[in-house]
Amino acid sequence: MNDKIYITGLGVISAIGTNVAESLLSLENLKSGIGTLENVRSRHQDNVPVGEVKFTNEQLTAMAGLTPDKQSTRTGLLGLLAAQEAVKSSGITNIKEFKTGIISATSVGGMGMTENLWLDYLDPEKSGDWLKHIEAHECGDSTEFIADVLGVKDFLSTISTACSSSANSIMLGARLIKHGILDRVIVGGTDSMARFTINGFMTLMILDKEQCKPFDANRQGLNLGEGAGFIVIESEKAAAGKEILAELSGYGNSNDAYHQTASSPDGAGAYLAMEKAFKVSGLKPSDIDYINAHGTGTAINDMSEGTAIDRLFNKNVPCISSTKAYTGHTLGACAAIEAVFSILAIQNNEIFPNLNFKTQMEELSFKPTTTLEKNKKIDHVLSNSFGFGGNTSALIFSRHKTI
Predict the structure, then answer these.
(1) Helix 299-312 vs helix 268-281: angle between axes, to the nearest 10 degrees?
(2) Out of 139, 319, 329, 380, which one is annotated catalytic?
(3) Is 139 a catalytic residue?
(4) Which of the following is catalytic: 212, 294, 334, 380?
(5) What residues contact residue 161 under an 8 Å CB cut-off, 6+ apart?
(6) Does residue 329 carry a catalytic annotation?
(7) pTM of the prediction?
């Protein structure tokens, strides 16, 4: 069994950057990507701030080096761009050199395209037009598209567990490597903006009409976002001779099944997920230098997560922040995007601030970091991602230390 999981490549696209370098610059300069909705037609166009990638599908196609006839959904295109960067970052030139898989997560799938075509379903004269797009609706279509362009054939899988989706894709990839099934896995997630999710979150009444403010006593909700993040994880054999960016040292998942959308008030699921991650890593809470919190900015989530963190860390909480005020909540992609941010924190010895925070929650012992913390020795980062239905996941990223 492989003991260690090495991270050798990073790729990301979101409202704050089309690649890792641009994203790091935005994080360091406290530059939020939250703004107006442009690429989706919605009645909420002007009153719901979002973290949108400001490129059309045609522009994304060109950025990925594809010809205009190589059609895909926006979800697929965002995912491909992040996965391409991760593969290039890892220095992979021969995808067939090792047993390689891809596990991509999403919650929206291709509905950003198909929701615009639903009236055509009823028109027999247009059946030929929409029929070629209907297969893109399901979540696995974007995974197959990315795998096809990259040439990955050994293993493909798609995970959709709401906002913990890409954390679970990273976790599954690690287990496949540990058990010798694969040598290398491109893991992450992608989600695009869609009217379905905008309207759905409006119905839940948890969208902030201003920029979100995670862990603030006066928080009003979340901002939706879109984007993709992928990392390349490898066994010792596949990573030999490469620069190791970090290690995935711990991971855990649980499901408290408290409610279809709400987190449990006591944070039971969040606590169990983090506890499992520590057991896998062999680390203690006191070893953590930074927590990249799920921190959506909703009343229930921040209370639930904060309560679980206070309990696990015995109210001795290290530096903590949520980066969702930069990117918006990217749903199935958020854990992978924040995995990239967590690894950047380790590489650059920086902690990225929690934007828009002003007033501490009375119920919690901690308040998030609000300034860029530089020259901090960061060896271990805990990154949380908690989804609807109580599906909660936690990842621990650690600095690679040569012996």
Answers:
(1) 40
(2) 329
(3) no
(4) 294
(5) 105, 168, 387, 389, 391, 393
(6) yes
(7) 0.95
